[in-house]
Amino acid sequence: MKLRATLALLGLTFAATLFAADSAPKSVTVIKAAHFVDTAAGKVLNDQAVVVEGDHVVSVGAAADVMKNLPTGAKVVDLGNVTLLPGFIDCHTHVTGQPENFYEDIFRKSPIDEATTSHIYAQRTLNAGFTTIRNVGAGNYVDFALKRAIDKGTLPGPRILASGPSLSATGGHGDLNGMSPYIRFEGEIGGIANGVEEVRKKVRENIKYGADVIKILATAGVLSEEESVGAPQYTIEEMKAAVDEAAVWGKKVAAHAHGALGIKMAILAGVASVEHASFIDEEGIKLAIVHGTYLVPDIYNDDYILAEYSKMGYPDKIIAKEKLVGRIQRENFTKALKAGAKIAYGTDSGVYPHGWNGKQFFHMVKWGMTPMQAIQSATTSAADLLGWQTKVGQIAPGFFADMVAVKGDPLSDITMLEHVDFVMKGGEIYKNKLTADAVKQFE
Ligand code: ARG
To answer: In 3-state terms, what secondary structure has residue 241?
Structure first.
C-alpha cells in the first residue's frame, strides 16, 4: 500500500513537472520594420510589427497598434528603415557539397569528406536568407544526417526537405559515366534503379531512411558524361511507378528534365515539379499548366559554369553541353512565364558556391518576372510546391517565424536580396547586422 501511495505521489509530481514545463511562458519578440512584404497579397506595407512567440508568428499589424498592446515581457527588436520579407525557399539545392576539381572530387574524396563539410554549406545558405531548402539529390544519405542535426538544434542551417539519392537509370545522369568498367565505389549508397520494380524499391528505401521528397532523373544532363544532354532516361512506366509509390507515403516527386520529350513524359507521369525545364516546348508548357506542374528553372548557374568549370578540370564535353542549354533555358523561362506556368525558385546551388542562392532573383527579373513575382517564386510559390504553404513563405499568424531584412527596397533593386542583413529562423536570430540583439550561439 505504502509503496503504491509513494508511486502515485511520484507520478503526480512527475505530471506536475511536465505540466509546468509545458505551460512555461514562451519568449515573445516583436519585430518592427519600416517596410514589410506581404507575399500572399503581393503588396508592400509600411510600419508593421510582427509578434513572435516561440518559433512562430502570432500576429502582424500596424506597428503603432501592436506597440499600444505590447504583450507583457515582450522584447522589441526595431530593425528600422528596412524591408522585412519571409525567409526565402530554394527548391533545388545540393547542400552537401560543391565542386572543387572534377577528378579529385571523384577519386580522392569519400562520403566522409562530404559529411564533414556539409554543415558549412548549410550555414552559408541560412546566412544568405534561405531558411528552407528542398535538397534534391545527395548520395549516402548525408542530407538526412545534416537535416537531423539542424532540426535538433545541433547545427545552424535551413529547414530541409531532403530527397536522399536521386533515382537514375544505369548510364544515366546519376551514374558515373565515362570511366573504366572496373571502377566501382565500394559500399556507396546511390540511386541507380532500372525498371518498375527497382524504381519502387528505391523509392521505398529512400523513404525508409528519411526522404521527404523523391528526385528522379528523367532525362540526361549537363554535369555528367553521357552523350546526350536531354534524352529521356526513364520510361513513363518507371516514372509513374516512382510517382505512385511516393504518393503511397505522402511524398511528391521532383523530376530533373532538360529535353522536351522527357519533360512531357515526366508531367504525364504526374511529377510535382520539372527541374531545369531547359528545352521545354509549347506543348510541354501547356501540359505543365493543365497538370499544375511547377517548373523550377535554374537560370543563374550557366554564368558560373561557363566561367569556372574548365578551370576545375571538367571535360570539354560537359562545357559543350552547358553551351547547348544555358541560353535556351532562359528564353524558355520567359515563354513559360508569359504563358502562365507555375514557377518556383530553385537554383541548383552546389553547382555554384552555397550562399549565393540569391543571385538568381536578378536573372528571373531580367528574363521577365516583376520583382514581386520573383520574390513570390521563392516564398509563396515555393512553399506551395513543398506542400508547406501553411508553414513557410509568409510572415503571417501560425507560420514559422522565418524572416529576412534588407536595408533598402528590393522591389526597385532586386539585387538587394543577394545580401541580407538580418535572418531569423523559427524565432531565433541567426544573422544580425542591424541591431545589438545577439544571434543564436552554437557551442
Ligand atoms: N545539374 C544540372 C545538370 O547537370 C545543371 C544544369 C546547369 N545548367 C543550366 N543551364 N541550368 O544537368
So the answer is: helix
